[in-house]
């Protein structure tokens, strides 16, 4: 087996992409091969901003998948973007993992995903690949989101 090989899939919003990109760059500095998956729209923005500087050590590779929105549609409407992603994401991670593993001696050893992109975690589990779910936002926000069903059940909110 070669180098550890991680596929990183952020939610396609600026703060999520930036934080997971920084984590990916730090992992690459430790000798871990990274495939960073962005939407085609964000992929172009990253390349426009960074050019060749994204992969200074030869271990980081940028990949892209469609987000399901048409050219010119507003990607700042996060509800619409999320809905579109959930329509196209069921097939994208599996196809991407098979493509990467088929073209590479260093098979994917881990999938690191923003937990809001849970469909990718399901695919990793199905393929038997270890996975990590990350929440790059404030931990308090995650705690509240995880407790909403209980708050509703207890009648504290509706």
TrEMBL record:
InterPro entries: Glyco_transf_N (IPR058980)
Domain Glycosyltransferase N-terminal intervals: 6-42
Example GO molecular function: quercetin 3-O-glucosyltransferase activity
SUPFAM superfamilies: UDP-Glycosyltransferase/glycogen phosphorylase
The keyword NAD is annotated on this UniProt entry: no
Cross-referenced Pfam families: Glyco_transf_N
UniProt entry keywords in alphabetical sequence: Glycosyltransferase, Transferase
Cited PANTHER family: GLUCOSYL/GLUCURONOSYL TRANSFERASES, UDP-GLYCOSYLTRANSFERASE 83A1-LIKE
Family affiliation: Belongs to the UDP-glycosyltransferase family.
Protein name per UniProt: UDP-glycosyltransferase 83A1-like
Organism: Gossypium hirsutum
């Amino acid at each position: 087996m070669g180098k550890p090989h991680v596929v990183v899939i952020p939610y396609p919003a600026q703060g999520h992409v930036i934080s997971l990109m920084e984590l990916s760059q730090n992992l690459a500095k430790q000798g871990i091969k990274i495939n960073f998956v962005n939407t085609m729209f964000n992929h172009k923005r990253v390349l426009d901003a960074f050019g060749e500087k994204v992969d200074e050590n030869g271990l980081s590779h940028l990949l892209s998948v469609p987000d399901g929105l048409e050219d010119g549609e507003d990607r700042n409407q996060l509800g619409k973007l999320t809905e579109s992603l959930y329509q196209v994401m069921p097939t994208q991670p599996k196809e991407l993992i098979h493509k990467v593993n088929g073209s590479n001696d260093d098979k994917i050893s881990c999938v690191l995903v923003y937990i809001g992109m849970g469909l990718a975690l399901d695919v990793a589990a199905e393929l038997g690949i270890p996975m990590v779910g990350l929440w790059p936002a404030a931990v308090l926000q995650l705690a509240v989101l995880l407790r909403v069903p209980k708050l509703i059940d207890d009648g504290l909110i509706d």
